[in-house]
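A quick aside before the break. I want you to see a complete sequence-to-structure record at least once, exactly as it would be stored in a machine-readable document. Don't worry about memorizing anything.
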Amino acid sequence: MCNNILQYGHFYAWGREHGRQTMSMRFAYKFQYFHICDTPNHNFLRYTIAKYAAKWGMIPTLEFNEPGVDISEQEEKMLKFKHIAVVGWEARWYDLFLKYKQEIIDLFAFKEAVVKACQPLLAAATKDSCRLGVHIRRGDYATWYDGKYLFSDEVFIRLIRTFLTFHPNTTVYICGNDPSLDKERYRREFSDIQVVFPKGNAAEDLYVLSACDYLIGPPSTFSLTASMYHDTPLYWIKDGEAPLTEASFGHFDELFRHIL
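That is the input. The structure line, written in tokens, reads:
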């Protein structure tokens, strides 16, 4: 989901800069959690027309599959054709993305149903407490990059404990994709603070993380997108043994240039 948000963000920004309308195939029929899904170009009919027009060769398809290469030729083709389908994960217009960042955030504003579902969880934090969002990514991370970013509970517990030395009055929100996560262990380890485990869908987890004051997690577009909404400080765990300091936290505008 978040890969698609960031991918479309780049194409949207390029389109805005060049006066071209754009649509996201994914958000025309899937991931119906965001404002963009209710905009005129995003519906199942448009998705179907675009999909089969590309499949049957009625409109050209342009691929962005090679990282770090000159894409000026692709840009010329995008300007040449009135309608064109673009695919691939390697389209990057960082400066344009930042130029239109607020518009992208507005497009991916959460629908009211998502916001409403998360309010009771966010209310668990006291008025003056800091909210720390922790993203525990397991599942596919067992094999992605040969498991380099699959971190144990010990790593997350150590980082949370260190964070509490900076901000003792903290409510911790732990989201992730590990159905067997030992939640009771976290509650025992941090029995003196509030630890919340959201049980919603991916968009609800994303909203909760986006509402936090700080974020910790392995390199992932999920935590990165959560940080985008409010420029939330984000610590990407790249070394499970590295010490955590307040200077360890980065920000979206720089981190999104270094997606693995």
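Two observations worth writing down. The beta strands are 61-63, 85-87, 130-136, 170-176, 195-196, 214-217, 234-236. The mean pLDDT is 94. We'll return to this after the break.
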